[in-house]
Structure prediction request, 439 residues.
Amino acid sequence: MRIIFVVLLIALISLPVRAEILEVCPNPYNSQAEYVKVRCNTTCVLSDGEGNVTLRAGVHYVAKNTSAFEKEFGFKPDAEFKGRFALANGGDEVLLYENGVLVDKFKYKRADKGLVYYREGCWKFRYEDWTSFKPVKDYVKGEIIITPANFVFEADTIVSYTFTTDRYVDGNYTLYLDANPVGGIPVNEIEIARNHKTFFLKSPSYRFFHWKFGLKDDEVVITTENWRWDDIGFIVHFESRKVSKFLRNVLKHDRIYSVDHGSVGNLKAFKSFGGKGKIYKFEGNVTVFVLPDYNPIFDEMEKAKGRLYIMAPYIHFKNTKFLDILRNKSCEVKVITADEKCAEFLRDFGSRNNLKLDVKVDKRVHGKLVIADDKAIISSANFDEFGLNRNREIGVVLEGKVVDYLAGLFNNNDTIYTLSALTFLCLAVAVAYIYLRFR
Prediction:
């Protein structure tokens, strides 16, 4: 009897406190397939203020049209909208009543085509055709190269947002490129693509295909740069059958987005570099992920207790989550950015919130790096609404001694700064010599 009582008690405790709206898809690719997903503990009523649907206890998909929903999503919904029930694309409110009491509601302002709002603790969003590739972890030996550098990779596959020079790639490789980058397809990219099998990618739900990586059998390169090494960025180079297979599977799927390229833009010049760059040999765990399927960046930033270091060319603050994370940090926070306005704002933000916040500017920064305690994340994703939410991006989480090495880049005496200082010093000496020599 006691066992039965305990089981019943556990079951009661585990029941949700109230009914909930779980998903809302107001504007699917098939407009007749719009739906709401809810969970009811007892009989409940779903409403949009104009029509009602009565539901029994359980989890239910309620759709505008049963056959359209089944064709779009591959299974039958549990109920259909009734009366004047409809989800407006320009914004609407969904209400859920249980035992005559309003227990949940969800209001949205605008719904892009294919957008799905869903509840996972808080409300988040995804698109219908987004994939769900899980990150892959492996123990590897490799190297990290800090650009500028002259690194050359012999590849069978090259993936990039843009690809304006082939001087750093050898081999008979296939190209995967964004079909509509900002400013159009560079002229030099068009000429390179003529000599290679090329897939230009465009999707209604990804803003850009902004990822950058290369493959040669089981050899992997993940980089923050568009296969030109003239800015400060990162190349992560290692061998892993698991990671190579994972990335090839993602590409195999994403070929469904293959289209003709968009408009052609201008010629894109770059600065060549003759040095090797800074190279660090490493050994340890790497976790490779693609966005938006998986994004550990904010989670790791939130968990950081000892140190939080961030390198990014710019940071957009439209999504305030970044600032909310910083606001509650008692640990040391360092930021390197190429954006003077961003740096000025962060310094003021740190002062007003009494933070241990050190911000520096280096105009050459293009790489994206986050160090949170004993983990380092290198990714192609910019710190803006598209990079962290809607682009196809790639990233790698590094563990081990390499993290401390990368953390050294944020020290005042590191060469990331002293190279610039030495350059200006040499120029000043040269100008002074010329002036004194010919005055």
In short: Residues 16-127 form one domain. The chain has nine helices and 27 strands.
